[in-house]
Specification:
Helix content is 34%, strand content 19%. With 238 residues, it is α/β, with parallel strands linked by helices. The strands form three sheets. It has a six-stranded parallel β-sheet, with helices on both faces. It has a two-stranded antiparallel sheet with strand order 2-3. The protein has a two-stranded antiparallel ribbon with strand order 6-7.
C-alpha cells in the first residue's frame, strides 16, 4: 500500500539504466568495470578523450545509433502517463543519456548526465541538438569550430541542473528510484536527502540496491511490470 499526503503529491522520480535495459539499450558497464570492452577511463573521462578523441567519438556514435533504434517500453510510458495526471508536480530526473523518456511523452524531465542526441562545443559551450556522427569532427553550428564532443557528463565532470534537482528532492512528498544501483553520487545521495525532509521513499529495481539510507519501500522485478503497477496504485490512491 502506498501512503500519500492529502492533495496532489509532489513526486520526484530518479531513473537509471535499468529502465532502458528492457528496450534493448545496454547498460554498458559490466561487473568487471568495462563498457562494451572499453575501460571507463578510456571512454568516459576528459582524459580519455584527450588521449584518443577519435576512439571516444566512435564509441558514442555507436551508442547514439543504438539508442535511436530502441523504443520506449511500458515503464517509460507509465511515467509519461503519471506526468499527464500530475503535471508539473512530477519531475523525472534521469541518469540515462538516451531519449526514451521524451519519446514516451515525458516533458518535465532533467538529463543530469547529458544526452546522446546533443553535442557539446568545447570552444563556445553550445549544446546543439545532434543526431549525426561526430567522428569526422563536423563544425559547431554556433561558432563554426570543429570542437564538438558528446554532451555526456563524464567522470570528474559536474552533472547538469543540480540546483533544480536538489530543490525538487527537498520539496517532494514521494521520491522514487527506478532501475539504478544508487552507487554513483550525487544521485546516490538523493534518497537520504528526500528522507531527511520527510518524503516517502520507494525503490523499484530488478534487485534491491545497497543504499546507505534504506528506502521506506522496495519492490524487486522487471521495470516494465513494477513501474506501471506502482503508477496505477499512485493514481488510484490505494
Amino acid at each position: 500500500m502506498i501512503l500519500l499526503p492529502t492533495g496532489a503529491p509532489r513526486v520526484v522520480v530518479l531513473t537509471g539504466a535499468g529502465i532502458s535495459a528492457e528496450s534493448g539499450v545496454p547498460t554498458f558497464r559490466d561487473s568487471g568495470g568495462l563498457w562494451e570492452g572499453h575501460r571507463v577511463e578510456d571512454v568516459a573521462t576528459p582524459e580519455g578523450f584527450d588521449r584518443d578523441p577519435v576512439a571516444v567519438l566512435r564509441f558514442y556514435d555507436a551508442r547514439r545509433r543504438a539508442a535511436a533504434s530502441a523504443l520506449p517500453n511500458a515503464a517509460h510510458r507509465a511515467l509519461a502517463r503519471l506526468e499527464g495526471a500530475l503535471g508539473e508536480s512530477l519531475l523525472v530526473v534521469t541518469q540515462n543519456v538516451d531519449d526514451l523518456h521524451e519519446r514516451a511523452g515525458s516533458r518535465n524531465l532533467v538529463h543530469m548526465h547529458g544526452e546522446l542526441r546533443r553535442a557539446l562545443c568545447v570552444a563556445c559551450n553550445a549544446r546543439p541538438r545532434w543526431s549525426a556522427d561526430l567522428e569526422d569532427r563536423p563544425p559547431c553550428p554556433v561558432c563554426g569550430r570543429r570542437t564538438l564532443r558528446p554532451d555526456v557528463v563524464w567522470f570528474g565532470e559536474m552533472p547538469y541542473d543540480l540546483d533544480r534537482i536538489e530543490n525538487a528532492v527537498v520539496a517532494c512528498d514521494v521520491f522514487v528510484s527506478i532501475g539504478t544501483s544508487g552507487a554513483v553520487y550525487p544521485a546516490a545521495g538523493y534518497v537520504a536527502l528526500a528522507s531527511a525532509f520527510g518524503a516517502r521513499t520507494v525503490e523499484l529495481n530488478l534487485v534491491p540496491s545497497d543504499a546507505v539510507v534504506p528506502f521506506d519501500e522496495s519492490r524487486a522485478g522487471r521495470a516494465t511490470e513494477i513501474v506501471p503497477a506502482w503508477v496505477d496504485e499512485l493514481l488510484s490512491g490505494s
